[in-house]
Amino acid sequence: MKALTIVPGKPNSAAVQEVPEPPASDGSVLVRALELGICGTDFELISADYGWAPPGSEYLILGHESLGRVEEAPEGSGFQKGDLIVGIVRRPDPVPCIACAVGEWDMCRNGKYTERGIKERNGFGSEFWRIEPQFAVCLDSNLRDVGVLMEPSTIVAKAWDHITRIGERANWKPRCVLITGAGPIGLLAALMGKQRGLEVHVLDIVKEGPKPQLVSELGGTYHTCQVTDLNFAPDVIIECSGVTSVIAGAMSKTGNDGILCFAGVSRHHATETLDIGSINRAMVLGNAVIFGTVNANRRHYEMAEQALRKADRNWLKRLISRKEPLSNWKEALQRRPNDIKAVIQFAAD
Ligand SMILES: [Zn+2]
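A: This is the predicted complex of the input protein with zinc ion.
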């Protein structure tokens, strides 16, 4: 079968090559790939900033934003041939740590977890893949067109889950959320903010293209100014850009009882001058919380599926800028100015 692979540690080694069928040890459910979403992590993997091949293998099959159709599933697995399926990315560490021991592998304490398509496990970027039933979720068949957005939605579902848990440390009635960065994560965060009944503001550098309209169609307000120039105090800020100047602005914008969630990943050595004294004063005197979030556990996959089911399907569809067939994989891996999410199509259905 064909698979999209990289050689971890070797920049620009991405290739489509013939690889053996997925081994039974990957799981009892055999899946025919439909689509694969491409995200910033994949670009980091391709440029060799990140990524580990499975033990004993020279290459890593890329891909963690999956959508497939069940080809074979054992009785009692909860899956049937024809089901729409999405694979969970992370596997608990073998120790396991106290987080992994209770299924919260997204909070792994010792870093010995593995990840499909990222860390020591082949990803979902092959014509067929296998998975353990307990690490897969079945999707509503109506989500065929947008199901590839599940994995990024789980990241956002986890961010909102933790924001809510932090907020509920005291009597908390958030009114307004600011999202910085209008990529797929930012737009999905805006969607889930709306679904929570909040006033939604999204800030991005881009003035044209689909982003401003997508935000206004949600009923949100789109801003292209500096964070520090915004004239309102958000209860929650979700930082999705990873841009250091935006992060610095967001850190100065946390209001009383404010929560700032870092969901975007910056580059190393991207320095910014900060007034730590003022940040400390604002945080202490305002009970502010700044926290980071990554990955998602099974509960977040379930939350994400609910969010996608509730959302306007046509709006969601427009987050997928283009679907390229596997033969066009090189185009799929090119970043284009108006792209929100590029997807590689493995099979039509
Ligand atoms: Zn762990």
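The radius of gyration is 20 Å. The chain has a mean pLDDT of 97.
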